[in-house]
Amino acid sequence: MASYTPLPVDVLLPICRHLAEINITSVVAFALVCKEWEAIARTVLHRSISFVATSRTRLAYDVNECRLRLQRTASSKHVRCLEIAGPGFVHKRGSILQQRLTLYRPYEVENHASHPAPGWRFVPGYNDCSETLDEIRSDGRHPFSLYLENRTGQVKVWEMVPDSSWQPLASFIAQLPVLSDVVYNCASAVPPCILAALHQHRCRLHVNTFRVPDLHKTLSADFVQLITSPCLYSIRAAYLPTDSNLAVPGTEGYYDEEALMRLVAGLSIKLKKMTILRKAGGAIPVGTQKPPWIGFKVSGTRLPAFKRGSLQELALLHQDVISVENIEAWSAHTDFQVLVVLKISAPMSADALDFIAKIDLSSLTTLRVVIHRDNTSIDNTIKATSDLLLAVQPLSELRLEQSIQTLAFGQIIKHHGSMLQNLSLLPSKEYTAYHESWSGYYLPTSTMLQELRECCPQLEYLAISIRRSRGSSAEVQAYRTLGSLPKLRHLALTLDASDYSVLWSFEAINNDNRSMTGSWPPPPDDSSFNDFDQQIYPETFIYNGPRVRNGHIRDAFINCAIDEWLARAIFDEILAGRQSSQARLQCVQLQVMGGGEFTSQVAVRQSLATVVDELSRSWTMTRDCRDDGEDKMMVREVERHHSSQMRSGPWGHRELEEPVMSIFRRVWPSSREGNWRRKWHSYPLSST
User: Fold this and answer.
1) pTM for the full model?
2) What would the DSSP string read from start to end of 437-492?
């Protein structure tokens, strides 16, 4: 009989934590090996707990059940992170089954943004609870956040819960000796009894559903206690500029963001993270000046004096343009010198970009910028963005979005390359953007990938767009170059199936006269087109604008058709560029965009959109955590809710109509019989 030498805890614990990051069910299997391994697994499995409260009775029941479970397994000493969610976030579908899963299978965690059912559950825990609070990186690893979109507007009556209803949970918190983080995802305000319990632990409080109260009224004592609490560590707030907090009734002034700035500057002394979503609508008209904010109204107490804050992370997820005045105001309320993470998801003016470039950002490691380009040939925004990216110190994480195609990528990559570990390049094709040629709508992928390989030896995560060209040798070479990045472990690849060269004559800015007369040059031809392909497609895309050929529609179908076979083939080409000494890819995500798009001016016609939606599949390939030999990957299709409904509903069996049907059948002749949705396949990549 073979002997067994127990492994030390110092070896088993890192293994268990690594399994938790990949698949929580693997940790459950780990716990079944023996009692010693089960004890180690509990430090991971019981690290984080989530409560979804929908009623006073149910919450008391859930708290008692959780307490008994922790007592039986002596796991109270392992709980470090606690989420409090609800009330009201209950889905009717499968409610009985979901409640049973919650009570008897607490390790079953769905990938969702809001919670499916009331109850308590163990959730995957990580070393840093703050990782789960990032709205931008919504990768589904942890259900510790609600959409900020849902937290605007006034508090409803059903969201107001008496403080006594939370007392069982407050008592439970007092019994968790090493609790370090509490994430509050409730619609109602943080209960005073919960806040009092947190003060005893001195743990960090993350309020994801923060609401600015009516600023015309005196602040309540409970709200003052919350914003001055030494436990308050991070805030996520959303507001819609409406009549709720006007400067003067009947005007367009609002002060929600000024109130949040004041929290940073002296009120919330331990506040380190601030995320704000300012929804579009109700913005002040251009040229309008609103009076200065007079501050919070308080009674019977005196708020701490103004003191410049020290945020480590600031995320402005606004839906309208951010002005230099907005950035200047934030700079006056928090010291940008200690800022580690800056995420701005709205376009900024050139003046705002120039102002940030001149600020001391010596602690910055992560930057997110969205670039908006106007329809003029001389655009100061592009230059200002490049100047900013070259002014800040080398970053470890950089995310650039929207009109980024004409940035000085060579200089930017060389400047940040030595430190860069996480890079996201997410271009979009704005109809207002000016480009000298159709190629300006696409990233210079070939040159850029070569520069990434030469200048970014530490790059582990990359999100980038690759233009599809029917699997040409250039497309294959791009996949292989991606694979040659030495430390790449996670690749998020957007396959761009659009072709703006076809209707570039309409995109060009000097064609105003032609748009009136309908006089356009013929669409471009292609040597691969046969007689049918060369025929003009009968439907117009832009009113009386130029038309395309049947062959262009054919190419669009081929470029956006991604089945599992092609997804695996793309992964194999990526692996073909890797060397045995390089880090092993852990995850590859494929997403198709732009199928059937020949211009930025209008949306894809519905007749084509139906086919494009069916063919444009998204795939995720993850490494089998139990495989330590070959590059074996598990492939899973990422279902889109709308697409799955179309396939399973009555529309799923509807026949295509002309002229789309003739082109589809020429690409896939087998579709003449049976359901066309099941009669297509991807075309192979070039073998050269």
Assistant:
1) 0.85
2) SGGGGS--HHHHHHHHHHH-TT--EEEEEEE--TT-HHHHHHHHHHHT-TT--EEE
